[in-house]
Write a structure and sequence with these properties.
Blueprint (H helix, E strand, L loop, with lengths): L1 E2 L5 E4 L6 E5 L5 E5 L7 E4 L5 E5 L4 E7 L5 E10 L10 E3 L5 E6 L3 E6 L4 E7 L5 E6 L5 E6 L3 E6 L5 E6 L5 E6 L5 E6 L4 E5 L12 E2 L1
Antiparallel strand pairs: 1-2, 2-3, 3-4, 5-6, 6-7, 7-8, 9-10, 10-11, 11-12, 12-20, 13-14, 14-15, 15-16, 17-18, 18-19
Length: 212
């Protein structure tokens, strides 16, 4: 699911089509359409322009927001997975809407330049499936949560590791930054919600790879 930037509409989709758009005030459907195989990932950009989605194809496609909660497909604008393993399950926009992060395979993250439709960087470091990716409010950093029981903080521009947050005892399913960007909140199958100060990676922590 994904909300419109102004919160007035909600997009819902599943493994089976169609996709529905709902008015959040009235609860009524304003539109529905078929995207083929259903959705594996969905996100709305913060600049009130685009919706990114994948229909289990490994290619991220876009709709453009129109008035009244309607959307229009952008057939010439898509990001091809180029070697990722099957479908894309995670999509996150940067705060300025110019950059997109997605999972690539199971344990890597791709950073995309949306306007150029190119991969800017590939980030590696997690040792199990990534479950969540989120940008900091400034757009300079990225948080990822994974089944390896860690939350990792990255420099969104260079892909360098900034922090590895350990403490969860089960897979971590979600991680987000606080509104001021100084803390990270994470939720896990260990039935805990944790609030972290952003800490530096210890000197003896192996540095994950980031490919240009």
């Amino acid at each position: 699911m994904a909300f419109s930037p102004d919160g007035t509409h909600l997009i819902s989709g599943a493994v089976d089509p169609p996709v529905h758009i709902w008015n959040t005030e009235t609860g009524l459907e304003t539109a529905h359409f078929n995207c083929g195989k259903g959705l594996s990932a969905l996100a709305s950009s913060p600049d009130r322009m685009l919706i990114a989605w994948d229909n289990w194809s490994g290619t991220i496609r876009f709709w453009r927001w129109l008035a009244g909660g309607k959307v229009q497909e952008c057939p010439d604008q898509c990001l091809v997975g180029r070697g990722s393993s099957g479908a894309v399950f995670i999509i996150a926009f940067s705060p300025d809407g110019n950059t997109l992060a997605s999972d690539s395979g199971l344990t890597t993250i791709r950073i995309w330049d949306i306007s150029r439709r190119q991969v800017r960087r590939v980030i590696r470091g997690h040792t199990a499936n990534i479950r969540s990716v989120a940008f900091a409010p400034t757009g300079n950093h990225l948080a990822s949560a994974a089944e390896d029981m860690t939350v990792r903080i990255w420099d969104a521009q260079t892909g360098a590791a900034i922090a590895v947050l350990r403490g969860h005892t089960r897979p971590v399913m979600s991680a987000v930054f606080s509104p001021d960007g100084t803390r990270v909140l994470s939720g896990s199958w260990d039935h805990t919600l944790r609030v972290w100060d952003r800490v530096h990676v210890p000197a003896n922590e192996p540095q994950p790879d980031a490919d240009a």
